[in-house]
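Read as amino acids, tokens; as here:

___
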Amino acid sequence: MEQHDDDDSMPGQDSFIDVVCNMVGILIVLVMIVGVRASRPEEFDAAMTPKKAKPKPQTEQVEQPQLVDASKLKDELAKALKAKEEIENDVARIADLSVQAALTEGRRQQLAVVQAAVEQEIAERRAKLDASGQSQFDVQRAIAEAEIKLTQLTQEQVSLVSQTPDVEEVECVPTPLAKTVEGDEVHVRIKRGLLAVVPADALLEEVRARGGDYIRSGLRDRSSAEDVYGPIDGFRMRLSVKKHMVAVQGPPGMPMPPQATVELQGVFLPISEDIGQTIDQALLPTSPFMRQLKGRRTATPAVTAWVYPDSYGELRTLKRAMWEAGVLLAIRPLPHGQPIIFSTSGTKSSAQ
């Protein structure tokens, strides 16, 4: 069997050539990749970077539609329409004023032109006169101007005379001298605009009718005693009696034993704050207050008004009515919360 010396016929030569060809192909591909990356680096990186999976969108919460108050919208709409109407009225008023101003300015200019023409004509006529004529012309012109001024003043005087003057009437009420009340006395309370008669005499009469045994027995055991009377005509009276020991000053060198003195105090308590009548009702002839005045023993009893700060206006009305009727009036102001108190250590009323 003949042996051939040709290299192509060597065993394994085809496999070696295949390997070399594959390596060359791989190198060519790598060279091309490097070239593409060098020419377009951004696009190459974007193409080679794996894409991230997009996150699933979260379920959005659907907002519930809010209900709008229709009444508020109506109010806002009404306000807007009213504002629009006011603006339109203002614009129309401004337009009217502008037209009137333009007309007035036109008339003023016309009058100025007429006045200038008249003055020029007068000056030309005066220039044609001699010295004597010019003097007489000036005198006549002065007389005419004076007559015009007199006519204007006469018209103003007539208009002033025809007008009714606003006369403010000031009434003067004389203030008489104060007198201490000694006789009959009617006590009234004025609070919250209401006048109520304080039944002082009736409550004291009840004290006398019931007797003072309870109070006297209380004073034997202690230095004070108290009792309540009424109600009469809406008032109660809390009567308290206090016993004090008072030192008595005797002759020099002779000590005197102390003496007991008794102080009585009556507090008048209304059963309700809204008691009484309005001042207009109280001044009627058939009111309890007027019946008290007419039923007194004396012809002109005095009235003592215990008044609170919220009723000074009603006090002025009562003062005027008593002054017109010739009845003396004593005024005792009281602060809020202070009741009417009678006491043996107090003072008598001073009426005017």
Notes: The chain has three domains: 15-45, 79-156, 179-351. DSSP finds nine helices and eleven strands in the chain. The mean pLDDT is 79. Residues 179-351 form one domain.
